[in-house]
Fold this protein.
Amino acid sequence: MDFEIPERTRAVLTELDAFIDAEIRPLEEQDDNARFFDHRREFARTDVERGGVPRAEWVALLDEARRRADAAGHLRWGLPTDLGGGGATNLDMAVVREHLAHRGLGLHNDLQTEHSIVGNLVFVELLTRFGSEEQRAELVEASIVGEKGLAFALTEPDHGSDATWMTTTAVADGDDWVINGTKRFNTLGHDTTHDVVFARTSGKDGAARGITAFVVPLDTPGVDVPFYWWTLNMPTDHAEVELRDVRVPGTAILGEEGAGLDVAQAFVHENRIRQAAGSLGAAQYCIDRSVERARDRTTFGRPLATRQAIQWPLVELHTEATMLRALVHRAAVALDDVRAAGRSPVEVGHLVSMCNYRANRLVCEAADRAMQVHGGLGYTRHEPFEHIYRHHRRYRITEGSEEIQIRRVAGHLFGFL
């Protein structure tokens, strides 16, 4: 197994850096757009009067960055070539995600919105794998360019990781289905026009089969968004969504009836490894900034870097980051190998879970240590560490909580899976 970074991928990193310097950084600096990234960022981005959702100016800036990235050929790089992408492997995407996060806060790769000049276009891949011809024609290209967007409605007020016990139901009525239920933390972004709603259509509570995925336009009668949850990281896209007698045609089903969890699980391994790579990059950024600060800061007549109390915690974090990088690359290549062989990604799910939960812990620890090394300045919003912490802390709960990830590793280790 070779998980060295391919030369062609290194060349892409060079191209991305040049594009950022030529196109994205100037956009970030014009018209006081710096307010979205400096100490004003949370307030500049958040429309308090509209329930904490993103401000229109912030949305427009993200859209322009995405348009430029697409025009330059970067946005779709992670998609298969038949979708106009670059056919990037999981290793390619892991390397790029880490690289962009390692550059720090910026319009090239915004943490809070999942925006990136190299898109992680999950729903495009799901539509390609499971969507009907009509669904693909309507939504694939439109979602890439931002004309339409999809969200993921799985979690409920009383059910998160225990999704097989969901209480949202869909009942057949002729050729239609009628959906009733409530979804929580439904990530409705500024461009969301359709929601992928998971509902039980058959089977008993706790059964994996019998849950169906429906593509529901948000303007369908009976769909209501009463409020957004204000979170540790703002602005928010975590909506409460109520569905009351929502009628959709049978053509709204994504994938097969009763096999909705197959849709939910189809891209989870790729998404988790990419998310872990992003956390790793942000962690390394915090470590590197802390080392720089320790070298430059003088206390009691000596550089802060000469103090073992400063050195040793950063050595521990840097060591873990180095080991984790090797594991992320190994897991990404293993995922590519099983996909190419037509085997189930579940075979390497334990590796993906190891990467995911450790990377999410690491970035929180690295951001916290960076605050400590920077002293009072580290605690202010004039440094990026509090923002990095607030964003990545959620991934220890979402994307599969760390308890779920550890449980998967335990299942492999003890032979339960």
